[in-house]
Amino acid sequence: MGGVVMDWMTMSLAERNLAFNNVAHVGAEAVQARRAAWDAASEALRARRPGHLNLAYGPAERTRWDLYPAADPHAPCLVHIHGGYWQRGSREAFACLAEGVLAHGWAAALPGYTLAPEAGLTRIVAELCRALDWLQAEAGGHGIAGPVVLTGWSAGGHLTALLLGHPKVAAGLAVSGVFELAPLRDSPHVNDLVRLGEAEIATLSPMRLPGVAKPLTIAYGTAELPAMVASSRDYHARRAAEHLPGELLPVVRADHFTILDELRAPDGALTRAALRLAG
Questions:
Q1: Is 228 buried (19+), middle (13-18) or exposed (0-12) by CB count in 10 A?
Q2: What tens-digit pLDDT sequence spans the chain (279 residues)?
Q3: Rounded Cα gap, residues 119 and 101, in angstroms
Q4: Neighbouring-strand partners of residue 216
Q5: How far apart are CA 49 and CA 67, in angstroms?
Q6: Burial level of 232, CB count in 10 A (0-12/13-18/19+)?
Q7: Of the candidates 102, 100, 97, 112, which has an alpha carbon nearest to the alpha carbon of residue 37?
Q8: pTM above 0.70?
């Protein structure tokens, strides 16, 4: 993968597990502090912008949207899919990631989705397809009628790649995603709850699917785990080989968590990448 030599057949279970364990790589205490800061900033943003929150797009408890319209209803809209290896996280906790584009007069929107083990990956993808259907039909009534740039981080980066083909989506920004799912089958910290099987690995790994001819920026932190770096680089190479549009964006010295600073900041590298995708 991307110049990183990993022989999954000879690696121990512990080695396979650590290859994609971002919390262990960065340190649990540092991650906990960062999550607490995100929670506080997100709570403050939602308190300032309460007018279009908790909008149901489906029957499940977490199938809801939080919308942050812009002053101009035709401004671009950043849709962000949260991460957490499909088993953690929430739209509420990651609301602060809208701050960067909101400062540029954009709209933003964050969907929730049911988490593993209550939902498998097939259901999660189906829920988010339904969420985008709802956005296409209903967002105009909430003051959001501009082009959608779909973004996601970690598990959300994977989901961004899968959902790029939705007709509501103009372009995508996949941040620190895993685009070949097979190695995660042997990662207990992921698959004990997600329970990926061979069929889902084959049908929901972006590396194995035909590429979508829309711009997709693929970003990663240069201080991330080697397997995570390789995942992004390999997927970009696969798309480039098919002559599909989109840049590869290495964020220097960023790890799997600090990279999100670049989406929160109005002048951050990921915010600038989103602005470029909107033309």
A1: buried
A2: 444 555 655 677 777 778 899 999 999 999 999 999 999 999 999 999 999 999 999 999 999 999 999 999 999 999 999 999 999 999 999 999 999 999 999 999 999 999 999 999 999 999 999 999 999 999 999 999 999 999 999 999 999 999 999 999 999 999 999 999 999 998 888 999 999 999 999 999 999 999 999 999 999 999 999 999 999 999 999 999 999 999 999 999 999 999 999 999 999 999 999 999 998
A3: 31
A4: 172
A5: 9
A6: buried
A7: 97
A8: yes
Q: What is the CA radius of gyration of the chain?
A: 17
User: Which two tokens mark 177?
Assistant: 């995603």
Phi/psi at 56 (5° precision)? -75, 130
CA–CA separation, 18 and 263 (whole Å): 26
Residue 127 to residues 81, 106, 119, 131, 220: CA-CA distances in angstroms?
Answer: 12, 25, 10, 6, 26
9: amino acid identity, one letter: M
177, amino acid identity: G
Q: Which two tokens stand for residue 167?
A: 């007709």
The distance between the two most distant Cα atoms of the chain, rounded to a whole number of Å, is 56
